[in-house]
Write a structure and sequence with these properties.
The protein is α/β, with parallel strands linked by helices. It contains 13 helices and 12 strands. Strands 1, 4, 5, 6, 9 and 12 form a 6-stranded parallel beta sheet that branches. The longest helix is centred in the first third of the chain and has 29 residues, at 2-30. The model is unreliable at 347-351 (pLDDT under 50).
Length: 352
């Protein structure tokens, strides 16, 4: 219990620090400071775009924003003088001298709400965007472990889970204990062979009456939906691997196969080979220079990470940073603050 409360306090303290950094960045940017930090522009990353559900336990809340916040974000960027580019146009823009700043929007994983709630907002403003789709989610062969863990812990009061040292009985009657367990499951998934660890989680979930592949089918678009979605003139599709495993933890041949097969699956659905790829998780431990090189060798012209930062002419086209629009920081002025580049001079900005 005490460790669960500590986990919540730690999360809250981190959010308070980030919020303070965003507020300070916004005030500095309004005062005209730090203009050089803006660079050429910014790539934003999102996942879910949907109305909030008000649930008490939402360990993945940082991965979702409301349609209204997306609308306000675009309006703010327009007011700040940004132009909107499709992602595939970013390398060419970076090769030019910095002028009017640009923004590009991307969404990861291929969630159904991207079509239901995000597309109408982007269409209202005429803003192009790229959605990175995962072959295993489209074909219902792979699960979204973070959603499985959310559903499993949210539905359980007690749970037996083997983190590697034998089964433990988890008391999940307290909300703080659920958050602690979620954090432990995340570490468990990423500590060893990711596919094997996810298989363990899926087995435990099925025994508890939670079907991981049903969650995949409920949340993500299938082949027909993807094809219809991709036909919209503002929509571009990018590759996001087949299994959504961290590429840097795979050997080079498997990493290459994941990227190649993902591109082929998108081409099979749409008739067009994607030129952009997003590396799953995208942080320094999940995507590395080797993967950027493989992507370029496979013909991708754009590769995006989740390493935070705005864009300069110094970035590799297949290893670009992105800025997350995070569910915990849904205020219009924070969009200006993030796009300014100022927050990324603050410690802790890697958590935004």
């Amino acid at each position: 219990m005490a460790s669960g409360i500590s986990e919540i306090l730690r999360r809250n303290a981190r959010r308070a620090i980030i919020t303070g950094g965003l507020e300070a960045s916004w005030m500095l940017s309004r005062a005209g400071f730090g203009r050089s930090a803006r660079g050429h522009g910014v790539i934003f990353t999102l996942h879910h775009v949907r109305p909030g559900n008000g649930a008490a336990f939402q360990p993945n809340f940082y991965l979702e924003v409301t349609p209204d916040f997306l609308d306000q974000s675009i309006r703010q960027l327009k007011a700040d003088g940004y132009r909107f580019l499709p992602l595939e146009a970013v390398p060419e823009a970076l090769a030019q001298p910095a002028g009017q700043p640009f923004a590009a929007f991307t969404l990861d994983d291929g969630y159904r709400d991207n079509a239901e709630h995000a597309l109408p907002v982007f269409a209202r403003h005429g803003v192009p965007f790229t959605v990175f789709v995962t072959g295993g989610f489209i074909d219902r062969t792979h699960s979204l472990w973070w959603e499985t863990a959310d559903a499993l812990l949210g539905a359980s009061q007690r749970l037996a889970f083997d983190f590697g040292s034998g089964p433990e009985e988890l008391d999940l009657t307290d909300l703080s204990a659920k958050y602690e367990a979620y954090t432990r499951i995340g570490h468990f998934i990423q500590r060893r062979n990711e596919a094997d660890q996810i298989a363990v989680l899926n087995r435990i979930a099925l025994e508890a009456g939670v079907d991981p592949l049903e969650i995949t089918a409920r949340l993500t678009m299938d082949e027909d939906e993807i094809a219809a979605f991709a036909a919209h003139p503002l929509v571009s599709l990018g590759a996001h691997t087949i299994s959504h495993r961290a590429l840097a933890r795979l050997d080079p041949d498997n990493a290459r196969r994941e990227m190649q097969a993902s591109a082929a699956r998108v081409e099979e659905i749409t008739g067009r080979r994607p030129r952009a790829i997003a590396y799953p998780y995208g942080n320094g431990g999940a995507a590395c220079a080797r993967d950027f090189s493989i992507a370029a060798d496979l013909g991708f012209t754009v590769g995006v990470t989740t390493r935070p930062g705005v864009l300069t002419g110094q970035h590799s086209a297949t290893g670009l940073p992105r800025v997350s629009l995070n569910g915990f920081y849904q205020k219009r002025r924070y969009v200006s603050a993030l796009a300014s580049g100022i927050p990324f001079t603050f410690r802790g900005a890697d958590r935004i």
